[in-house]
């Protein structure tokens, strides 16, 4: 009989799960420098229609997440992730050979539908092994590794464009996705033993969904995460237009994007160090207050500058704001999942899907408001920051005091 692989070490597991979750960010960020070329070659409409290459992936991911969690509770974590990677690779192949914009969008939808598997089931896999502040620490460390992707991905995409066309970006995505799948299959053990698996049934899924909605901490923190990610998704989808079209940075777009991503990674690292001492709620409360106040102040400054503030001030604003968001990302997921460990797979699916639907809907609206100025984007950070702060205060007041680890 073949020998069993040695148990995955802590550092290797953090790295593996970070790469799996980061397939979403990689699928988005690596092609941001190529959006103009894709739109031109495939006859997309106006400049704002390029954004759908990003938005439709989130649509597929939002729908896919609803299925993967319940399936993983029934079959185990690994089969669900295998299936998701299979869909992702199929969508990548379709995008490689797309000859029109509609085919490209279908391929991107399949990529999103597939990448939802590793993205959401990985959270359930983490919840199988950790809880409370330990889970928040693990998620924050995953995010620290994860953030290397948005730092490097646009530069990778730009480098590929120097030697080939945008289709080569999808070829690289296919190779990387296949490599991570093989690594996961060989090294990661199944974390949901057969004795703890639940039979897949519509009644159980409906019951679990109802529990997520009726558990105030879970629902409240999910909505807060959705509001915050809406503004960030708006930034992602219009970042190429802001930096290259509005500010004319050209090939330096990848540098600016990567520098800003460092703020997210630094915040995730800091959060992993502080969350065990101060707790998730205190850190997220202060981060939300800072984000909201700074965003309203810079929104007013942007208005004075007719929607076109100096580039250095805009980058400075994004650095501070993204640091706050980096504190919020891992903690909101952990707080939403904390009371739902007994239904981790379904909970991860519903929470992930709700967050993505909210952020996709609001983020797409924000991005479509782009009018050649950054005013709609800065305003979205301010308004959604205030809305998130109000929702968090409501959640903390109505949720049981002992629900935070």
From TrEMBL:
For this protein, the record's SUPFAM superfamilies field holds:
MFS general substrate transporter (SSF103473)
State whether keyword ATP-binding applies: no
Which family is it part of?
Belongs to the major facilitator superfamily. Bcr/CmlA family.
Protein name (database record) = Bcr/CflA family efflux transporter
**One Pfam entry name:** MFS_1
**What is the predominant subcellular site recorded for this chain?**
membrane
For the Major facilitator superfamily (MFS) profile domain, which residue ranges apply? 13-403
Q: What is the recorded membrane topology of this protein?
A: Multi-pass membrane protein
Q: State the UniProt keywords alphabetically.
A: Cell inner membrane, Cell membrane, Membrane, Transmembrane, Transmembrane helix, Transport
Q: Where in the cell is it found?
A: Cell inner membrane; Cell membrane
Note the superkingdom of the native organism: Bacteria
Q: Where is the signal peptide?
A: none
Task: Give TM regions.
Answer: 16-36, 51-68, 80-99, 138-162, 168-186, 213-233, 253-274, 286-304, 310-332, 344-370, 376-396
The answer to whether keyword Transport applies is: yes
Name the InterPro entries on file: Efflux_drug-R_Bcr/CmlA, MFS, MFS_dom, MFS_trans_sf
Q: What is the taxonomic lineage of the source species?
A: Bacteria, Pseudomonadati, Pseudomonadota, Alphaproteobacteria, Sneathiellales
């Amino acid at each position: 009989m073949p020998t069993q692989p040695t148990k995955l070490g802590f550092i290797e597991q953090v790295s593996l799960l970070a790469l799996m979750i980061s397939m979403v960010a990689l699928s988005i960020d690596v092609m941001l420098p190529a959006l103009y070329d894709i739109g031109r070659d495939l006859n997309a409409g106006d400049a704002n229609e390029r954004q759908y290459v990003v938005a439709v992936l989130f649509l597929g991911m939002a729908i896919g997440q609803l299925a993967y969690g319940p399936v993983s509770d029934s079959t185990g974590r690994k089969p669900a992730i295998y299936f998701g990677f299979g869909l992702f690779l199929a969508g990548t192949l379709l995008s490689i050979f797309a000859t029109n914009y509609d085919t490209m969008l279908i391929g991107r939808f399949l990529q999103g539908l597939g990448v939802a598997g590793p993205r959401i089931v990985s959270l359930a896999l983490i919840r199988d092994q950790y809880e409370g502040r330990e889970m928040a620490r693990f998620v924050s460390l995953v995010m620290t590794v994860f953030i290397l992707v948005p730092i490097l991905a646009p530069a990778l995409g730009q480098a590929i464009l120097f030697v080939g066309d945008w289709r080569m970006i999808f070829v690289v995505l296919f190779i990387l996705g296949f490599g991570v799948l093989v690594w996961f299959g060989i090294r990661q053990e199944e974390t949901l033993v057969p004795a703890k698996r639940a039979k897949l049934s519509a009644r159980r899924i409906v019951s679990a969904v109802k529990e997520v909605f009726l558990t105030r901490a879970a629902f409240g923190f999910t909505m807060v995460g959705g509001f915050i990610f809406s503004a960030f998704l708006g930034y992602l989808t219009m970042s190429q237009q802001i930096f290259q079209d509005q500010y004319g940075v050209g090939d330096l777009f990848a540098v600016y994007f990567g520098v800003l991503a460092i703020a997210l990674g630094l915040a995730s690292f800091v959060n992993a160090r502080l969350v065990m001492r101060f707790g998730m709620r205190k850190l997220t409360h202060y981060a939300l207050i800072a984000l909201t106040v700074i965003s309203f102040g810079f929104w007013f400054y942007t208005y004075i500058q007719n929607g076109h503030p100096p580039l250095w001030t805009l980058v400075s604003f994004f650095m501070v704001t993204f640091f706050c968001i980096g504190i919020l990302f891992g903690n909101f997921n952990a707080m939403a999942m904390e009371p739902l460990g007994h239904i981790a797979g379904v909970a991860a699916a519903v929470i992930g899907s709700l967050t993505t639907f909210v952020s996709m809907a609001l983020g797409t609206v924000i991005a479509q408001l782009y009018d050649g100025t950054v005013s709609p984007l800065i305003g979205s950070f301010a308004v959604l920051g205030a809305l998130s702060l109000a929702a968090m205060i409501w959640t903390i007041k109505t949720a049981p005091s002992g629900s935070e680890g």
